[in-house]
Amino acid sequence: MLKNHLSAVTWLCVFLVAFVGHPVWLQKPPKRKTPAQLKAAICCEEMKELRAQVANLSSLLADLSKKQESDWVSVVMQVMELESNGKRMESRLTDAESKYSEMNNQIDIMQLQAAQTITQTSADAIYDCSSLYQKNYRISGVYKLPPDEFLGSPELEVFCDMETAGGGWTIIQRRKSGLVSFYQNWKQYKQGFGSIRGDFWLGNEHIHRLTRQPTRLRVDMEDWEGNMRFAEYSHFALSNEFNSYRLFLGNYSGNVGKDALLYHNNTVFSTKDKDNDNCLDNCAQLRKGGYWYNCCTDSNLNGVYYRLGEHRKHLDGITWYGWHGATYSLKRVEMKIRPEAFKP
Ligand SMILES: [Ca+2]
Questions:
Q1: How many angstroms is it from 140 CA to the middle of ligand 1?
Q2: Which helix (H) or strand (E) holds 200?
Q3: Ligand 1: centre distance to CA 221 (Å)
Q4: Which residues form the signal peptide (predicted)?
Q5: How far apart (Å, rounded) are the C-alpha atoms in residues 131 and 18?
Q6: Cβ(344)–Cβ(167) below 8 Å
Q7: For residue 13, what pLDDT is reported?
Q8: How far is 159 from 161, CA to CA, in rounded Å?
Q9: Which of these CATH numbers, 3.30.200.20, 3.40.50.920, 1.10.3720.10, 3.90.215.10, describes 129-266+331-339?
């Protein structure tokens, strides 16, 4: 019985101790969280925060990825554009290159043409009838030679014989009609006179200029019976006026008998107003012409034109002593020149 009693007391004590020691038990327990609970709460908040952050990040990532995507697209677009620009540039470059090459080609052609022009001006310039012949002018007649800029001489009208002995002859004297007097003064003989299609003297100044290059002379003659003869000289030149248009002749060839110009070789020109001959007489006045008088003549190609029947009276006719003698005046004479180097 005691044992039960003790046990009851013990329980009572425990109860009391517990009750006194912990009066709070009787109170309403405060809403305090345990550390674990706190920890859990903090975690949750952190989690929430983290989740929010993750969500934010995800959205950012999505944004970013969207942006990246759009950026990528724009990059791709830009690359494509660049590529097409590159292609365009390349094609422009090709165009430019082809244009450049075309221009270069044109420049080459122009340079070639310029070179050819220079060659033409030096080699193919028109000096006389032989130049015209080489340029395929093959019909005898009147031509105009361009002015000589070097000498300052004007344009010159000439008559070209493109047929006789290969052609290319510039005629310096003609007697055929008798309509022009050859009894002229120094000045007239210097500059020339007469009619280019009829009787004329080309002019000592022009003849001098034309014979600055090695030149041949040919004299074609016809008598009143219709016989034709010629004399040719492998070299022919006239000095300048200061040297009184002195005559220089090379080797004779031809079919007109005796060479009747040899006697006049190395003599100077005389006219009625300028006696440069080798005689006490005035040969020009005696022979009524202008010529390279010696003392006085073995030929007188610039003498007086006499028609058939008149020519035996005087010694001043158009004579070639080696053929018909001193008193026979010829019907027709032509003196013509061309370069020694001319090849028909
Ligand atoms: Ca004299």
A1: 39
A2: strand 200-201
A3: 28
A4: 1-26
A5: 153
A6: yes
A7: 43
A8: 7
A9: 3.90.215.10
Which tokens sit at 153? 């001489």
pLDDT at residue 59, rounded to an integer: 82
CA 274 / ligand 1 centre spacing (Å)? 9
CA of 262 to the centre of ligand 1 (A): 19
Q: How far is the CA of 278 from the centre of ligand 1 (A)?
A: 6
Sequence-distant (6+) residues with CB within 8 A of 64 are: none
pLDDT tens across 147-164, in order?
A: 877 767 789 999 999 999
Distance 290 CA to ligand 1 centre (A): 13
**Cα(270) to centroid(ligand 1), Å:** 9
Q: What confidence tens digit (pLDDT) does each residue in 300-334 have?
A: 999 999 988 666 677 999 999 999 999 999 999 99
Distance in Å, CA 282 to ligand 1 centroid: 4
Q: CA 251 to CA 233: how far, in whole Å?
A: 5
Residues with Cβ within 8 Å of residue 193, at least 6 apart in sequence: 180, 184, 200, 201, 203
CA–centroid distance, residue 269 to ligand 1 (Å): 11
Structure token digits, residue 1: 């019985």
Q: Report whether 254 contacts 230 (CB < 8 A).
A: yes
Distance 242 CA to ligand 1 centre (A): 18
Question: What are the backbone dihedrals phi and psi of residue 328, each rounded to the nearest 5 degrees, phi first?
Answer: -100, 110
Residues 6+ apart with CB under 8 A from 266: 246, 247, 248
CB 202 within 8 A of CB 231: no
Question: Hey, what's the torsion of the CAs at 263, 268, 269, 273, to 10 degrees?
Answer: -120
Residue 245 CA to ligand 1 centre (angstroms) = 16
Distance 73 CA to ligand 1 centre (A): 114
Residue 230 Cα to ligand 1 midpoint, Å, equals 29
